[in-house]
Amino acid sequence: MAGRAFSCSARYHYGMTTPHTTGHASAPAYAVLRVDRRKAKAMAAIAAASGHQLRTKPTPNADPDAPPPITMFLAGGKTPYQAVQHLLEGAERRNRETVLCREIVVSASPSYFRPGREHFGGVYEPDRLKAWASAMLAWAKRTWPDQLASIVLHADDEQTPHAHILVVPRVQKAGGGWKLNSKALFDRERLRDLQTSYGKAMAPLGIRRGEPGSQATHSEVRQFYGALQSAKTMPERVKLPAAPKLPSPPGGIAAEAANALGSVLGIETAHQRALKSHTEAMMHWRETVKNLRQQDAAAWEQMKARSAMAPLTHKQQKTAPLQERPLSNVIPSGPKMKNGLR
Fold first, then answer.
1. What is the CATH classification number for the domain harbouring 205?
2. Tell me: the pLDDT tens digits for 282-308?
3. Which member of 18, 115, 168, 199 has the lowest number of beta carbons within 10 Å of its beta carbon?
4. Is residue 323, in this structure, part of any structural domain at all?
């Protein structure tokens, strides 16, 4: 089934470049693919994933004022939940532990979406986003021709564009029909193959696959986590308040009569006042969440800034004459552990 057409518009973007070239110096761009370890074995879990992807419920880590997500593909229905239901129809389920659906998140390094401006969260170049989204959609259709349920693109409400993919792990039975078999599609070897095939699909855009089986050895990763190790106190992630609950409509004959009388006489009912208060509370909550997220981002930007300075400081200390270096830099402060960390 062909996916729905989509369009992308950035609230904040800079001058456009071609998807393959840029005038900015930037870090290498890597393909990002993560298969959620949580395996949906009940429809409630799929409903929760669908609500998160479509932002039908308050999502603390997303900008509540951002444009809505973009539904790029649905196998059926109007939501990812309904699309999964469509593919599950008639599929044989062995027992209650049978996996109904798997979720995959795909993206690329920030250096691809905003070359030279990696630390500007929430911005991207539209032409690059469209090129990546088109290539990703084609790859997903080739990879799961009979299992792809939905693809939802989050472009504007988080730090870096990414897409949520729902896959129903159904395979054809020998006698016809479908049965659910998650291991047939998502065992360890297949997971490696997914990383490789996704990397190959992104290669024409200048996005490369990471080294198979390697540890995190990129210099910027070492710097960042080195700063975390050396920090006496790490910045704590802020705890966001829960969204105000919508007041329940009044029930009973007396309440309905009061509402009807209030409407006739132009008198504001208690429920109407509660709704107004809820609207004001939601505005205050959005502003509070926005401020807290900015504070959180600022704290982590400071940590990243310290990590960026760490190699330069280390280099200066290493090249300084031994007699001029601080004693603490010459004498170890503790036992040396694995990988050279103390």
1. 3.30.930.30
2. 999 888 888 888 877 777 666 655 555
3. 18
4. yes
